[in-house]
């Protein structure tokens, strides 16, 4: 074959042979107009954002420094779980919760999609690192993409460019991440503001530790360091190496006695991680600082405790509902600028707005669909899954140790979901195995973060249903084994929370947001052995008296109802858990089956 000459291809700032060979192979397949190796510099960022403004993808904001408004194609607004595949060598490697296709078959299909798919566009090579750059063994990746939006977003969400490439040396291992919008440009053809393809594939090759994505520009489908690498591929690496890659926030809690506790919490997409991570406590003397809002990698330290690291460098947070009353620290973070806002509304004076941004909406907006919007409009101004993309370092309450490669020792793990009924405000597990049962049976109403129906209750184990890179039964066993391998006295305690229980008129029974600090306080007091709890069929639950409710502006009856363990509701839950466990099949750990039997016994 004759080697193609593609401008930029040979201007590689590395001698890493495997990387050079892969970049050449992809360039020859996708035939871009030129190849650009990203260095992550300010001048590169200025060039790319200006290009995005000229293309009509970005609108420069005057209301926030170095920030942009962006509206996607209305069909490309969320993760596409139906189009997400785990291409393990054997179907049992993917299990019943993932889509599977034979790796060779998938490669054949996608190779044809990629053939010429970057024609008329620039192919960017983005070396990146998930987690701190000074880690003993940095977790490296390279994303190849034909999207400027992806490059600009990856600069916020990861450590990328020259500083990452410096850690590659001659032969460091890395995860190849290939992304194409699937929208080649013919000579003279005018581009659209948000190129994408109706055919979409988000695919993972767990044995090869490789990611191929096609057709979408949306965050979770296109920023491949995030869910694809740090959860789906990392969960496989973690299984093999004895650690955990989880869909969890990490926060630091300091008590009035100045004692520090680190908490990790797994809630499904759009169920409150960003908000809890940046919480402003309503109870005096307590302080929360943020380490991460979406992903935690947890390994045992030499002292036998479980340490968590956030692999990301940015927040890709849900915009609607984020306001000065609900999440002032997110507002302070984005006010500092350097942010991209996708699928929110644009104000007439060049700022952003979304439902919940402020109490009263402006008199006129440009909606995410680029249409005139007034407070009388029938449609929402912003897509429910619209997002802000902003650097963690700008968060006013970022914990100083957020980039420590050793991580922080976790005292408590919270599982939670969005359930209108049944699940109490907080329940403490009896032990690790019972906590794993809580996680494995976690359920939540679906949200707009994934394409499909919203508000349907589904099992979302450990909030990882769309992100487990292998068989869910093996994943549960890995969680059980993680507990068995550890000193039980040093393991984090496990809790199940629900901020979303509703009364008869559909109002939330618990005010949530900053008031969730009252639940965190009870958890700390349980760890210290000072707070009472009632032993129920489902675990240890506080009475209203056991919670610090001083100054809480909520009806006492609502709090009681939020805490209630209703045996009849739980009896109705059991068949749903049985159905779920049946779906997992033979690989369901016996210990979880035992936990279900014990629960049934206790419910009577
Ligand atoms: P992903 O980024 O999709 O993984 O989501 P997340 O878990 O970080 O969710 P986020 O914190 O962004 O919250 C999603 C939505 O839930 C927002 O609209 C919030 O306003 C709302 N929310 C968060 N916490 C609470 C709470 O305590 N109570 C109530 N009622 N709503 C909440
Ligand atoms: C989620 O859906 O859980 C997110 C957003 O955090 S995305 O990165 O798009 O997956
Ligand atoms: Mn998430």
Automatic annotation (TrEMBL):
Where is substrate annotated to bind?
A: 79, 218-220, 269, 385-387
Cofactor stoichiometry and binding? Answer: Binds 1 Mn(2+) ion per subunit.
| Positions of the Phosphoenolpyruvate carboxykinase C-terminal P-loop domain | 243-602
Domain Phosphoenolpyruvate carboxykinase GTP-utilising N-terminal: residue ranges: 22-239
Broad class of where this protein is predominantly found: cytoplasm
| The organism's place on the tree of life at top rank | Bacteria
This enzyme catalyses: oxaloacetate + GTP = phosphoenolpyruvate + GDP + CO2
GO BP annotations listed: cellular response to glucose stimulus; gluconeogenesis; glycerol biosynthetic process from pyruvate; oxaloacetate metabolic process; propionate catabolic process; response to lipid; response to starvation
Cite the PROSITE patterns for this sequence: PEPCK_GTP
Pathway(s) served? Carbohydrate biosynthesis; gluconeogenesis
NCBIfam families named among the record's database cross-references: PRK04210.1
How does the annotation summarize its subunit structure?
Answer: Monomer.
Any idea what this protein is called? Phosphoenolpyruvate carboxykinase [GTP]
Q: Which source organism?
A: Longimycelium tulufanense
What gene does this protein come from? Answer: pckA
């Amino acid at each position: 074959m004759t080697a193609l000459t593609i401008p930029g291809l040979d201007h590689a700032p590395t001698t890493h042979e495997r990387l050079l060979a892969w970049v050449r192979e992809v360039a020859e397949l996708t035939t871009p107009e030129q190849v650009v190796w990203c260095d992550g510099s300010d001048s590169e960022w200025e060039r790319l954002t200006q290009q995005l403004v000229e293309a009509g993808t970005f609108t420069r904001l005057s209301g926030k420094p170095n920030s942009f408004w962006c509206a996607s194609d209305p069909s490309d607004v969320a993760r596409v779980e139906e189009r997400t595949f785990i291409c393990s060598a054997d179907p049992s490697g993917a299990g019943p919760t993932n889509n599977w296709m034979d790796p060779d078959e998938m490669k054949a299909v996608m190779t044809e999609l990629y053939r010429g798919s970057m024609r008329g566009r620039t192919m960017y090579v983005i070396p990146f690192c998930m987690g701190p750059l000074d880690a003993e063994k940095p977790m490296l990746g390279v994303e190849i993409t034909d999207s400027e939006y992806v490059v600009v977003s990856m600069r916020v969400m990861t450590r990328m460019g020259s500083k990452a490439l410096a850690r590659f040396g001659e032969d460091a291992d890395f995860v190849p991440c290939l992304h194409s919008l699937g929208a080649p440009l013919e000579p003279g053809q005018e581009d659209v503001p948000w190129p994408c393809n109706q055919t979409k594939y988000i695919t993972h090759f767990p044995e090869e530790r490789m990611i191929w994505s096609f057709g979408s520009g949306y965050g979770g489908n296109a920023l491949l360091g995030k869910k694809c690498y740090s959860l789906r591929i990392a969960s496989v690496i973690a299984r093999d190496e004895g650690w955990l890659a989880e869909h969890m926030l990490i926060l630091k809690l300091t008590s009035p006695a100045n004692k520090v506790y680190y908490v990790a919490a797994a809630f499904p997409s759009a169920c409150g991680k960003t908000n809890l991570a940046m919480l402003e406590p309503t109870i005096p003397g307590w302080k929360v600082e943020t380490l991460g809002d979406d992903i935690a990698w947890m390994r045992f330290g030499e002292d036998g405790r479980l340490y968590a690291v956030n692999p990301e460098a940015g927040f890709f947070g849900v915009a609607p509902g984020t306001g000065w009353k609900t999440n002032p620290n997110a507002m302070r973070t984005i006010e500092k600028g350097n942010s991209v806002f996708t699928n929110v509304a644009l104000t007439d004076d060049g700022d952003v707005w979304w439902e919940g941004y402020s109490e009263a909406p402006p008199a006129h907006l440009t909606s995410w669909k680029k249409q005139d919007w007034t407070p009388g409009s029938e449609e929402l101004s912003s897509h429910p899954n619209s997002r802000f993309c902003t650097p963690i370092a700008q968060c006013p309450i970022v914990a100083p140790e957020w980039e420590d490669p050793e991580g922080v020792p976790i005292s408590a793990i919270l599982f939670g979901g969005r359930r209108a009924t049944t699940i109490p405000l907080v329940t403490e597990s009896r032990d690790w195995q019972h906590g794993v049962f809580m996680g494995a049976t976690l359920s939540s109403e679906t949200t707009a973060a994934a394409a499909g129906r919203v508000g349907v209750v589904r099992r979302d184990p450990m909030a990882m249903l769309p992100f487990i890179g292998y068989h869910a039964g093996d994943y549960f066993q890995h969680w059980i084994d993680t507990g068995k391998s550890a000193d039980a006295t040093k393991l984090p305690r496990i809790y199940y929370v629900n901020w979303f229980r509703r009364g008869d008129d559909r109002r939330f029974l618990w005010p949530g947001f900053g008031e969730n600090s009252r639940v965190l306080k009870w958890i700390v007091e349980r760890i210290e052995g000072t707070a009472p709890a009632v032993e129920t069929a489902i675990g240890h639950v506080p009475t209203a008296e056991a919670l610090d409710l001083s100054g809480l502006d909520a009806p006492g009856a609502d709090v009681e109802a939020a805490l209630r363990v209703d045996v009849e509701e739980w009896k109705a839950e059991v068949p749903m858990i049985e159905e779920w466990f049946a779906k997992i099949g033979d690989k369901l750990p016996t210990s979880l089956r035992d936990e279900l039997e014990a629960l049934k016994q206790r419910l009577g």
